[in-house]
């Protein structure tokens, strides 16, 4: 499966093409920026896709981060993902920004629990915890049952 991944939720614009059969991203680009996501995103997608054999026709899915993050940035990324997916007849999926941060660590062979956090724009935001299958099993084995 080949996925075009778009992230505009935070102070950067990032585009990546991932292929489950490749050990590394097929193509990617990222640019730190506070403003200007709308102007930067589509030209960046065009540059990244120019480096992908088969171009847009080789894609199976389009993914975009859906937060937490900048509401305007999220709308820009989701709109671009939806437009590309509709034009190509592809599935679109939303990915939590924090899950995307944690994902590279979850693929490692480890007994660790991973926490992903960003500086919150609002004080009521929480920090989710993720565990790989091996990490979740290790955490469950260490847990002490409580009897009430």
Can you tell me about this structure?
Helix 1 (37-50) runs parallel beside helix 2 (71-88). The longest helix has 18 residues, at 71-88. The chain has four helices and seven strands; from the N terminus they run E-E-E-H-E-H-E-H-E-E-H. It starts with a strand and ends in a 6-residue tail after the last helix. The strands form two sheets. The protein has a five-stranded mixed sheet with strand order 3-2-1-4-5. Strand 2 (12-19) and strand 3 form a beta hairpin. It is globular and about 40 Å long. The chain is of the alpha/beta class and 148 residues long.
Shape call: globular
Strand order of the largest sheet: 3-2-1-4-5
End-to-end C-alpha gap: 48 Å
**What is the element string, with H for helices and E for strands?**
EEEHEHEHEEH
Mean of residue pLDDT values:
84
Task: List its traits.
148 residues; alpha/beta; two-stranded antiparallel ribbon; 24% strand
In short:
35% of the residues lie in helices and 24% in strands.
Task: Describe how the helices and strands are arranged.
Blueprint: E1 2-7, E2 12-19, E3 27-32, H1 37-50, E4 61-65, H2 71-88, E5 91-95, H3 97-106, E6 113-115, E7 129-131, H4 133-142
Parallel strand pairs: 1-4, 4-5
Antiparallel strand pairs: 1-2, 2-3, 6-7
């Amino acid at each position: 499966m080949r996925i075009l991944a778009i992230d505009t939720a935070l102070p950067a614009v990032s585009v990546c093409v991932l292929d489950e059969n490749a050990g590394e991203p097929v193509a990617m680009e990222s640019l730190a920026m506070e403003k200007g996501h709308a102007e930067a995103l589509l030209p960046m997608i065009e540059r990244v896709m120019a480096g992908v054999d088969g171009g847009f026709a080789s894609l199976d899915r389009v993914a975009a981060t859906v937060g937490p993050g900048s509401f305007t940035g999220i709308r820009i990324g989701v709109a671009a993902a939806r437009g590309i997916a509709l034009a190509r007849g592809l599935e679109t999926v939303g990915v939590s920004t924090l899950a995307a941060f944690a994902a590279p660590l979850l693929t490692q062979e480890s007994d660790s629990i991973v926490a992903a956090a960003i500086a919150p724009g609002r004080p009521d935001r929480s920090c989710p915890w993720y565990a790989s299958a091996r990490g979740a099993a290790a955490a469950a084995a260490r847990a002490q049952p409580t009897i009430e």
